[in-house]
Amino acid sequence: MERLTTGYPWPMRIGRNLEVRPLGGAMGCLGMILFSIVASVVLTVVLNLLL
């Protein structure tokens, strides 16, 4: 019987010691939304301080 996998079957390596494992389902969606909101606020504050 063939095993079905969804998404990425292995983590993405960045450098030697850092691995990025994609999240799936509701937690992955919620995590990406929260990351997007936090990154947007932080970048807005940084740009306003620079200008």
Task: Kindly describe this structure.
By secondary structure, the protein is mainly alpha-helical. The chain has a domain at 23-50. Helix content is 51%, strand content 12%. The protein has 1 helix and 2 strands. It has one helix at residues 25-50, and strands at residues 12-14, 18-20. The protein has a two-stranded antiparallel ribbon. A hairpin with a 3-residue loop joins β1 (12-14) and β2 (18-20).
Listing every helix as H and every strand as E from the N terminus to the C terminus, the arrangement reads: EEH
Sketch the major β-sheet: 2 strands, antiparallel
Q: Would you report the number of β strands?
A: 2
The DSSP helix count reads: 1
List the helices and strands and how they pair.
Layout: E1 12-14, E2 18-20, H1 25-50
Antiparallel strand pairs: 1-2
Keywords:
single chain; mainly alpha; 1 helix; two-stranded antiparallel ribbon
